[in-house]
Amino acid sequence: MFYARWIGAMVYLLAVVGWGVHFSARTVLAEETTEISCPEGGLSGGCPGTCAEGQRCLNAPGPCHRCMDVKRVEITWIIIIIETPLGRVVLDNPDTRQNGAGDFEPVSLMVLANADGSVGDLGKSKARLESIADSFKAGLLSQGTSKEIAVKIKEGLDKTDRPYSIGCFDAFDQADALKLPPAGSADEAAGAFGSDVEKDVIHNGPVLACGRQDGVNALAIFDAGGSLVQTITKELLLQNPDVIEESLAQAEQRSRKYFSPEVQQGITPAIQPHPIVSLPADAQVEVNDPLYHYVKPKKKKLLGILGSSTKAQITIGSSLRMGGGVLGGVSTETDRSQGPDIKDQWGIKRVGFSPPSDPSSAWNVMGVPEKNVVVAVIDSGFDFAHPDAPAFSWTNAKEVPDNGIDDDANGYVDDVRGWNFVDENNDLKDLKGHGTFVAGILAARTNNGLGIAGINPGAVILPLKVTDPQGRANSLNIARAIHYAVDQGARVINISLGGRGFSRLEQHAVNYAFAHGVCVVVASGNTGDYLGDVGPASARRVLTVGAINYDGQRSTVSSWGPNNGLLAPGELIASLQSGDAPMEGKIYLDDKKYHLQSGTSFSTPMVAGTASLLLAKNPQWTASQIEDILMGTATDMDQENWDDKTGAGLLNASKALRAAESGYLTLKLTEMRINKDKKKKLASVDVYGTVRGDVDYFTLGVGKGARARKFKTVAGPFKTQADHNWIARINEKELKGSNTWIIQLNALDRSGQSKTAESVLLLK
Question: Lower Cβ count inside 10 Å, N or C end of the chain?
Answer without folding.
Answer: C
